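Lecture notes, part 5. Sequence design as translation. It can be helpful to think of inverse folding as translation between two languages: the language of shapes and the language of residues. The source text, in structure tokens, appears below.
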């Protein structure tokens, strides 16, 4: 099917929030939800209240986010970031995520051009195989433009700090592609050292905590590209795409062909969609969000409240 055919077939369709997105049970992930316009202490209080009534609801932490933190006229800290516990693809995860987002909305929270939506995925997803990680790097370079468009979420464009503050790992990877391809299994350390020269998580992917591709606390790959959102279906779409993008990197690839495509800037949205997804619903949700076939996913990105 062509791009125009997809646009026609998907016109006005919405992304549905699902109880199961069909990812392996050993895959772990987490989210960091930045928000504005709500008193931080109020959000913390209501999170604790939920935990009191639902003891299984644990590990969601509300913190100050320095980049957007401000004070209101009463001296209260407003704006912040909610970090999730380690999550898996199960009903509990999707119920809790929706509950947290509804809590934020009920308390007047919004997302603006300053708010990011970060997705963290446990590095064990690479099965300890450095070739999968190499494939991930090459495909991130190749499809970087399409991934950025998808990461606009419910808005018409990605937030401004991606152009002014956050640096693109694709450019760094491309500059070091020879070393990446020629290095042995320790190239993960090599990449971590490159990224560690820039402090404060300045890149669109944060890798510097990765010391291997095996499971261990905080051993994650953090995707920092997406716009912030309070829509649960967009959050699920973000998680689904980044997890399945990595899973697809386990396929046998023609490396020479990938390098040729990178060199000649040959890539497309449909090609990326076909590569990542085998499920038609996954593919449709990805394209609805990326192609903006419904105006509810093409909103203007609100300005930072005090910019």
């Amino acid at each position: 099917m062509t791009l125009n055919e997809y646009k026609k077939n998907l016109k006005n369709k919405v992304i549905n929030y699902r109880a199961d997105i069909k990812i392996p049970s050993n895959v772990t992930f987490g989210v960091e939800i930045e928000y504005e316009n709500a008193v931080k202490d109020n959000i913390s209080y209501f999170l604790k209240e939920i935990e009191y009534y639902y003891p299984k609801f644990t590990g969601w932490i509300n913190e100050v986010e320095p980049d957007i933190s401000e004070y209101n006229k009463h001296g209260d800290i407003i704006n912040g970031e909610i970090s999730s516990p380690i999550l898996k693809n199960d009903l509990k995860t999707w119920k809790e995520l929706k509950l947290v987002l509804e809590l934020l909305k009920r308390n007047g929270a919004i997302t603006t051009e300053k708010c990011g939506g970060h997705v963290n995925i446990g590095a064990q997803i690479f099965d300890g195989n450095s070739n999968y990680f190499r494939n991930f790097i090459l495909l991130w370079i190749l499809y970087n433009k399409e991934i950025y468009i998808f990461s606009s979420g419910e808005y018409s464009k990605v937030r401004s700090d991606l152009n002014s503050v956050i640096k693109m790992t694709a450019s760094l990877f491309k500059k070091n592609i020879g070393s990446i391809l020629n290095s042995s299994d320790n190239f993960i350390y090599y990449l971590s050292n490159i990224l560690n020269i820039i402090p404060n998580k300045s890149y669109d992917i944060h890798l510097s905590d990765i010391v291997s591709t095996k499971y261990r606390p905080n051993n994650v790959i953090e995707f920092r590209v997406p716009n912030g959102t309070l829509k649960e279906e967009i959050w699920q779409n973000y998680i689904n795409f980044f997890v399945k993008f990595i899973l697809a990197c386990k396929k046998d690839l023609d490396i020479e062909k990938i390098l040729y495509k990178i060199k000649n800037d040959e890539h497309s949205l449909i090609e990326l969609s076909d590569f990542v997804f085998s499920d038609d619903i996954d593919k449709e949700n990805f394209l609805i969000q990326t192609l903006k076939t419904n105006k509810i996913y093409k909103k203007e990105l609100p300005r930072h409240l005090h910019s």
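The translated text above is only one of many valid answers, since several sequences can fold into similar shapes. The longest strand covers residues 29-39.
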